[in-house]
């Protein structure tokens, strides 16, 4: 059987990263608002050609899937177009920018949609869940996540808040650990500058199973280690788990003590995420699909609705 044909929509650094992991596993074509960018990426990565317009991708029955790495302002439109054309779609986070776009995506068939939320595929998540599910810390009570560093929002990212652009990774981690419906979201935005996107968010999320999630995420806080070697915590009725927030290592301090380095070879989960995308092309729905993205984005949107008007 012929390898699937995948078209990359958007030809920046994220496109290149994903395409390198798929070389030799799929056939590739490229599209960008700048045709020269698409041509360069096609030559660099051994693609089969470029498209001049987005509509021409949708009209090509040979295209099996889209990988959307364009700016978020066009994500919803491109995702809906791809799904309606019968293509599988992998879209970079965030899936979209507001509730109306989220609802619009939900009105089309989404079983072939996957959001590129690599935190759902990190080896550290598997370790943390295995310790929780085996009862090593008793009943799960609270998840505390923290990632604070100094980072500039560059290019199109400068128009969006840090929580939407980067903090959503940790929102996704929180919901993957808790695995329950969202009941309530409370948010504060320390250091908020009038008319500027937020750069520091403190969240408290209440879930239907009684677990509370906390997240402090910032792009305005100097860090000598650029955000590495900061620690997060999972609290249970009989112990706790402390882990480096990026997933480098985790310590279980409960009924049994353990120290683990979950997997440095795919620390950020991109390899496992691409494997899941290939399974999507074979008909296996993704755990990082519309329902999961809706919960994660719903938390972010609920937080932003509490911003001063």
Number of domains: 2
pLDDT averaged over residues: 96
Strand order of the largest sheet: 7-8-9-6-10-11-12-13
What CATH calls the topology of the largest domain is: Dihydrodipicolinate Reductase, domain 2
What is the name of the CATH architecture of the largest domain?
A: 2-Layer Sandwich
Helix count equals 9
Tell me the structural class.
Answer: alpha/beta
Percent helix, as a range, is: 25-40%
Distance between the termini: 56 Å
Q: What is the CATH first-level class name of the largest domain?
A: Alpha Beta
Largest sheet data: 8 strands, mixed
Question: Could you state the order of secondary-structure elements as H and E?
Answer: EHEHHEHEHEHEHEEEEEEEHH
In what range is the share of β-strand residues? 15-25%
Task: Give the overall form.
Answer: globular
What is the CATH homologous superfamily assignment of the largest domain? Answer: Dihydrodipicolinate Reductase, domain 2
Low-confidence stretches: none
Gyration radius, to the nearest Å?
20 Å
Count of beta strands: 13
Concise account of the structure shown:
The protein has 309 residues and is of the alpha/beta class.
Topology:
Blueprint: E1 5-9, H1 13-22, E2 27-31, H2 35-45, H3 54-59, E3 65-68, H4 75-84, E4 88-92, H5 99-106, E5 113-116, H6 123-133, E6 140-148, H7 162-178, E7 182-188, E8 200-207, E9 212-218, E10 231-236, E11 239-244, E12 250-253, E13 257-260, H8 270-281, H9 290-304
Report on this model:
The protein is an alpha/beta fold and 309 residues long. The chain has 2 domains: 5-116, Rossmann fold (3-Layer(aba) Sandwich), CATH 3.40.50.720; 120-270 and 297-304, Dihydrodipicolinate Reductase, domain 2 (2-Layer Sandwich). 32% of the residues lie in helices and 24% in strands. It contains 9 helices and 13 strands. The strands form 2 sheets. It has an 8-stranded mixed β-sheet, with helices on one face. β8 and β9 (212-218) form a beta hairpin. The radius of gyration is 20 Å and the shape is globular.
